[in-house]
Specification:
The complex is a heterotrimer of chains A (260), B (261) and C (640). Chain A has 260 residues and is mainly α. Chain A has helices at 2-9, 11-36, 43-54, 58-89, 104-107, 109-128, 167-175, 178-206, 214-241, 251-259, and strands spanning 144-145, 150-152, 155-158, 163-164. Helix content of chain A is 68%, strand content 4%. In chain A, the strands form two sheets. A two-stranded antiparallel sheet of chain A has the order 1-4. The longest helix of chain A is centred in the first third of the chain and has 32 residues, at 58-89. By secondary structure, chain B is of the alpha+beta class. Chain B has two domains: 11-120, Beta-grasp domain (Ubiquitin-like (UB roll)), CATH 3.10.20.30; 128-258, Alpha-helical ferredoxin (Fumarate Reductase Iron-sulfur Protein, Chain B, domain 2), CATH 1.10.1060.10. Chain B is built from eight helices and seven strands, in the order E-E-H-E-E-E-E-E-H-H-H-H-H-H-H. In chain B, the strands form two sheets. A five-stranded mixed sheet of chain B has the order 2-1-5-3-4. A two-stranded antiparallel sheet of chain B has the order 6-7. The longest helix of chain B has 18 residues, at 241-258. The radius of gyration of chain B is 21 Å and the shape is elongated. Chain C is α+β, with helices and mostly antiparallel strands. Among the domains of chain C are: 267-402, Succinate dehydrogenase/fumarate reductase flavoprotein, catalytic domain (Flavocytochrome C3, Chain A, domain 1), CATH 3.90.700; 476-626, Methane Monooxygenase Hydroxylase, Chain G, domain 1, CATH 1.20.58.100. Chain C contains 17 helices and 19 strands. Chain C has a five-stranded parallel sheet. In chain C, strands 11-15-14-12-13 form a five-stranded antiparallel sheet. In chain C, strands 16-10-18-19 form a four-stranded antiparallel sheet. Classes of the chains: A mainly alpha (260), B alpha+beta (261), C alpha+beta (640). At the B-C interface, helix 1, helix 2 and helix 3 of B face helix 3, helix 5, helix 6, helix 11 and helix 12 of C. The structure holds flavin-adenine dinucleotide, protoporphyrin IX containing FE (2 copies), iron/sulfur cluster, FE3-S4 cluster and FE2/S2 (inorganic) cluster.
Chain lengths: 260, 261, 640
């Protein structure tokens, strides 16, 4: 069908796929951040939330596959477009080349993207699969029992008394390692940079941007990315600096106090 | 738009010019010193002067493309110190004047570098790929003599003006030269937008954008990553809004053509 | 000796064209594919013909020396294009456009051609709008017009200051469509260097590929040339640097008559020359004269002074003084000559002393700088860009420059030259403008020729040729012509003298400007007729063209073009010398009214002078075609 041929083989089609998948990923990371910020609430909150997500079953797998597909398409498009653009530049490069106005973020999209990819792989190994830091992995830690009903935006996620993974402690213990935290911070920093150009760029790709509100769009995107970065920075940042102590009675609290 | 500096004293410059005998030949930079230059001389006249000197010494003059020398034909195509068409915005190489440089400056002059614009000699590249794109759909099919009265279709002034903004493209290729990806999106976007904005352009609107983009891809131009270097180098300051429009036109046409009965 | 039969069809002037069209011979649609048409040039005239002929079904081969058809010099036209649409309801009509053009041409054009031009002018606008040319519009969405060049009606259509560009891109898009669909085969970077005649008919051309240097032969059933004007014979002009006369000149040497070569148009408001490195003169819109006042210092000693320091009483507003009723708005030729006279008197200003002031200080005082900025801001910017001076603070300097050539290859009513099968369109023919072209009518003529005249008349000619009788390029005529091309190339490359092509071009330009420019005299022209052959001799003995003919060689291209200019310049002077009257762009100082206006001699010179080549070193024949004015009464142009 023409639709798929155009989307997958033409330059603009692939750009469009990249933007669509990018948009989905932006949605995911934003939602994920909101979810993660629950770490600053009562431990039950994030644990109950994680439990709810884990409990989605086939739906979770649906979402996972969808996200995976998006990442795959996004990366595939990025790689193909990059290779083509390299070829288009020819073999001899300019003796002198000046940047005229391309934003810093836009110049390093490929680099920031790949660091994000590396991060995602590490992150999955870390918090989802437990390949690294397995001693603090949620599967290793003792399960906890919810003391309250957990609800988010009024929607009930889990009821008091349910036995759930101790995600709360996993995160605290994970970020207690400065190296790990630092990597997270660098990675989310680059991700924010990626989004700085990416989010603005997808408006251009969809044909929704124009000179009249370019400045406005640019500001909104910049503020969004800054907030995104600060939000993400807050978690490892607060834990590492000890600004936020693990709640008393959690495995993380016990462990960290034992270390001191 | 307007060049600054006010020096009226004659100056000397060194030009580091890319010399390449032919498409297959190896190229390299060669330095040429030019002294006692009137600052009101145009950059192309500076090359004329250097060439006059070379010819007198029975050396081959520097080949460079030029014709109108007033910024409208789109023939001139120098990359001066890393910027297509030289240091100023909204003008072509031929509208660059020696007064834009300081006494003693070393100026690097190179051809466009992009695979779809192969070098023919020295500073001249083959830009016929632009013509090929145009042939794929950059027109409104109207047999001579078959047109209706010119005022039969009123066109809102706003649309006509915007179409004119897009139509001002001189086909110089600086957009491709400036783009890190050697993408022709600005050129194609301008042409597609011009016709998409006008009622006359509607019947072929979808096929035009699909065919022109397909040709652009086939010819080996790179992919736009929304860096807007093209519009910064464009001598007619064609806006990259037209790239946004091109994207929308293309996806719209793709979707429409997929769901057409 | 050639005969000049204008082939004007019989009948009343307004009906001539339609009756003639209705009676033309037609080519059977199935046979059209069997005819091949060569079109040289893809400016407004060539591009539109090539596209239209291909649409009709003929096989078209189109040649341009540019790297793309979109770069033809038509692209540079700024002001606009005339058409008798009467959209403004101000009383315009085909007749009025016809009349204005004939009068503007100082009664030296052919009535029948001009009338046809006015008739088809309306169709041009329709055609261009349909192609997507973004003409200026009013808020209601209808087309806008401006008035131009002294006409009393608003009939000029425009697209910002880029009318020529937009019209050319329209023709280029039509041409592109036909190239894409295979109807036209485009040969870019291909310079026509010879016309090939087979049995006395134009049947092919010899072309040099400017990139590879390869010389190739091309045969067809007829040849259409639309190769533009030859104003670069003056070296400095408003033309593109590469505009040249080569195609026309080589056709002339093959027997096509060259008509009225001395008619050149000089535009009064160009930016003056700033030094001897100068390569190009830039036109400033004539509209500046609406609010600017033109003056020079009364005393030559003041010329060095800062103009702002010259008091009012020491300024000579010479146009206002000499032409009190028209003042600064005197027509192009009149204003140009007056500026030249001032400079000849030693009162020119600027570094080269070839310039007059165009002063806006009165306008700024009267209207305020902001109003002046909205009216002329972009022109002031261009001026600043080129001269680095602000016209808001100090008067502009302007000077006349060569802008258009009314002369060109002689053609009949069918736009066919006296060589059967050779059609000449656009600025390359001697055209419909007589001795002077009105503003905004060259674009009109180019497109009229290309869209609405040649496609009919060429078809009419082809119908007389047997289908499939295209000669083979093995015909000896092709070899002969190729040899001639190669011979000339070798001669240029082997001279190995000491001077550059540019050096000779500058000298030729100076001779032409001094003696065959704005004002001509018998003595001056006779002098030029000695200087030019001498210069030509020197050129052939002492030019140096480095490089080879086997690759891109711009020095070689220029040398070949200059060689032709060196001959054409002589013919222009000869034509100017023999036309013992003043008319339009041709001003002989001996023939003027006491007030300095052109003194026409309708008794003896109401004719086209067409020159027939007689071989090297022989004075060409001067043939004439009488101009019969049946509809318009000849009268004196006056602007007092
Ligand atoms: C600065 C300027 C402003 C103007 N403004 C106006 C205006 O406002 N209104 C108006 O009506 N007129 C204007 N004119 C005049 C008008 O632009 C020209 O007369 C007209 O465009 C000429 O068109 P053309 O098609 O005859 O030739 P051109 O556009 O000159 O085209 C010539 C073509 O022939 C080709 N060619 C030439 N020689 C050869 C060869 N040997 N072999 C192969 N190809 C060849 C070239 O490649 C080119 O394609 C202006 C002119 C100038 C210089
Ligand atoms: C400081 C920042 C982050 C924290 C604290 C964090 C925390 C977590 C935790 C705890 C999980 C596991 C949930 C569970 O399985 O119970 C998880 C999963 C995940 N995170 Fe993060 N994350 C952060 C940033 C990111 C970023 C920036 C990305 C993406 C670019 C990301 C992508 C994912 C993905 C894809 C999963 C797997 C979801 C699944 O199970 O399918 N995370 N994250
Ligand atoms: C995993 C590796 C990734 C790589 C290699 C990558 C690479 C790229 C590249 C090269 C671009 C193109 C830039 C441009 O066209 O201007 C891009 C765009 C984008 N990326 Fe990524 N990216 C990655 C991950 C992500 C993630 C995780 C997100 C979201 C959270 C994301 C969001 C976006 C967005 C929104 C765009 C803009 C699309 C557009 O140009 O319209 N990317 N990416
Ligand atoms: S868009 Fe601008 S830079 Fe690109 S070809 Fe057109 S005028 Fe040149
Ligand atoms: S510079 Fe290149 S990346 Fe796109 S916006 Fe312009 S084509
Ligand atoms: S030479 Fe024509 S645009 Fe520069």
């Amino acid at each position: 069908m023409n639709l798929f041929r155009n989307l997958f083989t033409s330059s603009i089609g692939r750009k469009f796929l990249m933007a669509i998948t990018g948009l989905v990923l932006v949605g995911f990371v934003t939602g994920h951040l909101v979810g993660n910020l629950q770490i600053f609430a009562h431990p039950d909150q994030i644990n109950g939330y994680a439990h709810f997500v884990q409990g989605l079953g086939p739906a979770l797998w649906g979402i996972r596959l969808f996200l995976l597909a998006c990442v795959a398409i996004h990366i595939w498009a990025a790689v193909v477009l990059t290779i083509e653009s390299r070829t288009a530049q020819g073999s001899v490069s300019y003796g002198v080349k000046k940047w005229l106005r391309a934003s810093i973020a836009s110049r390093y999209m490929r680099m920031s993207g790949f660091v994000v990819l590396a991060f995602i792989l590490y992150h999955l190994a870390h918090f989802t699969l437990g390949f690294t830091g397995s001693e603090t992995f949620k599967g290793t830690l003792d399960p906890v029992i919810l003391q309250h009903d957990v609800r988010e935006f009024g929607i009930p996620l889990a009821t008091a008394g349910t036995e759930v993974h101790d995600v709360y402690s996993m995160v605290f213990l994970g970020f207690a390692n400065p190296l790990v935290s630092l990597f997270y911070i660098v990675a989310v920093g680059l991700l924010s940079v990626h989004l700085w150009h990416g989010t603005e760029s997808l408006f251009q790709t969809f044909g929704w941007r124009n000179g009249k509100w370019e400045i406005g769009l640019r500001r909104v995107v910049a503020v969004f990315c800054l907030l995104y970065f600060l939000g993400n920075l807050a978690i490892p940042g607060a834990i590492l600096t000890g600004l936020v102590e693990p709640a008393a009675g959690t495995a993380a609290a016990a462990e960290l106090i034992a270390q001191r | 738009m307007v060049a600054d500096t006010s020096s009226t004293k004659n100056i000397s410059l060194t030009l580091r010019v890319w010399r390449q005998a032919g498409p297959q030949a190896e190229g390299s930079f060669v330095n040429y010193k030019a002294t006692d230059l009137n600052p009101n001389m145009s950059f192309l006249e500076l090359l004329d002067v250097i060439n006059d000197d070379l010819e007198r010494r029975n050396e081959e003059p520097i080949a460079f493309a030029h014709d109108c020398r007033e910024g409208i034909c789109g023939t001139c195509s120098l990359v001066i110190d890393g910027k297509p068409h030289g240091p100023h915005d909204g003008i072509a190489s031929c509208q660059t004047y020696v007064r834009s440089f300081k006494d003693g400056d070393v100026i690097v002059v190179e051809p466009y570098r992009a695979e779809p614009f192969p070098i023919q000699k020295d500073l001249i590249t083959d830009r016929s790929s632009f013509d090929t794109i145009q042939q794929a759909g950059g027109f409104i099919s109207v047999r001579t003599g078959s047109a209706c009265d010119a005022n039969a279709n009123p066109i809102p002034k706003e649309h006509a003006d915007l179409a004119m903004d897009a139509a001002a493209c001189i086909g110089c290729g600086a957009c491709v030269a400036a783009c890190k990806n050697s993408s022709a999106m600005l050129f194609v976007g301008a042409k597609v937008s011009q016709f998409a904005l006008l009622p006359q352009g509607q019947p072929e609107r979808d096929s035009r954008v699909l065919n022109m983009v397909a040709k652009m891809d086939e010819l080996g131009f790179g992919n736009c990553s929304n860096q807007y270097e093209c519009s910064a180098a464009c001598p007619k300051l064609i806006s990259h809004d037209f790239i946004a429009k091109l994207n929308k036109e293309y996806i719209g046409a793709t979707v429409r053509s997929a769901f057409k009965p | 000796m050639a005969t000049l039969n204008s082939n004007i069809p019989p009948g009343d002037l307004p009906e001539k064209w339609s009756t003639y069209k209705a009676n033309m011979k037609l080519v059977n649609p199935a046979n059209k594919r069997k005819y091949k048409v060569i079109v040289v040039g893809a400016g407004l005239a060539g591009g539109s013909t090539a596209a239209t002929m291909a649409e009709l079904g003929y096989r078209v081969d189109c040649f341009v020396f540019h790297d793309s058809p979109r770069r033809a010099h038509s692209i540079a036209a700024q002001g606009g294009i005339n058409a008798a649409k009467n959209y403004q309801n101000d009383g315009d009509s085909v007749y009025r456009l016809f009349y204005d053009t004939v009068k503007g041409g100082d009664y030296r054009s052919r009535e029948s051609n001009v009338h046809r031009l006015a008739e088809v002018s309306a169709n041009i606008i329709d055609q261009c709008v349909a192609q997507g040319v973004p003409f200026a519009r009013e808020y209601g969405g209808l087309l806008a017009n401006r008035s131009f060049g002294g006409a009393q009606v608003s009939r000029t259509f425009y697209a910002r200051g880029q009318t020529g560009q937009q019209l050319l891109l329209g023709a280029y898009s039509a041409l592109s469509k036909m190239i894409g669909s295979g109807g036209v085969k485009l040969h870019a970077n291909s310079e026509m260097l010879e016309l090939v005649l087979v049995d006395g008919q134009a049947k092919g051309i010899i072309v040099r590929d400017l990139i590879t240097g390869e010389v190739t032969k091309h045969a067809a059933d007829c040849v259409v040339m639309a190769t533009g004007g030859y104003g670069n014979v003056f070296n400095l002009s408003t033309y593109a640097r590469n505009s040249n006369a080569t195609a026309a000149w080589r056709a002339y040497k093959k027997g096509a008559c060259f008509a009225n070569p001395c008619y050149t148009q000089i535009h009064p408001t160009c930016i003056p020359v700033s030094g001897d490195y100068q390569s190009k003169l830039t036109l400033m819109s004539e509209s500046l004269r609406n609010d600017g006042r033109i003056w020079v210092p009364k005393k030559a000693v003041d010329c060095e002074k800062d103009p702002n320091d010259i008091p009012e009483e020491d300024r000579d507003y010479y146009l206002e003084r000499i032409y009190p009723s028209f003042g600064n708005l005197a027509p192009r030729d009149v204003a140009s000559r007056a500026a030249k006279r001032m400079c000849d008197e030693g009162r020119g200003v600027g570094p080269t002393k070839l310039g007059v002031y165009l002063d806006f200080s009165d306008a700024i005082n009267r209207l305020g700088a902001d109003t002046v900025r909205t009216r002329y801001g972009n022109l002031f910017d261009i001026y600043k860009e080129i001269t680095n001076e602000s016209a808001y603070e100090t008067p502009m300097r302007i000077f006349p420059a060569v802008h258009y050539t009314m002369g060109g290859l002689w053609v009949d009513y069918n736009l066919m030259s006296n060589v059967p099968g050779l059609f000449v369109l656009g600025e390359a023919n001697f055209s419909d403008h007589g001795a002077n072209r009105l503003g905004a009518s060259a674009l009109m003529q180019g497109l009229a020729d290309g869209y609405f005249v040649a496609p009919y008349t060429v078809g009419n000619y082809l119908a007389t040729q047997k289908p499939g009788s295209t000669p083979s390029t093995d015909d000896p005529a092709f070899k002969e012509a190729t040899d001639k091309v190669n011979e000339m190339t070798q001669r240029l490359l082997n001279t190995r003298g000491k001077e550059t092509v540019a050096h000779f071009h500058k000298r030729l330009g100076k001779i032409m400007w001094d003696h065959c420019g704005m004002a001509r005299t018998k003595e001056g022209l006779e002098e030029a007729l000695k200087l030019i052959p001498a210069l030509r001799e020197e050129f052939w003995a002492n030019v140096n063209v480095p490089g080879s003919d086997k690759s891109l060689n711009q020095a070689l291209e220029k040398a070949g073009r200059l060689a032709d200019f060196l001959e054409l310049g002589e013919l222009m002077c000869r034509d100017a010398l023999t036309r013992e009257e003043s008319c339009g762009g041709h001003f002989r100082e001996e023939y003027q009214h006491p007030d300095g206006e052109c003194l026409r001699d309708d008794e003896n010179f109401a004719h086209v002078a067409a020159w027939e080549y007689q071989g090297e070193g022989t004075v060409p024949n001067r043939l004439t075609e009488d101009l019969n004015y049946e509809t318009v009464k000849m009268s004196t142009r006056s602007y007092k």
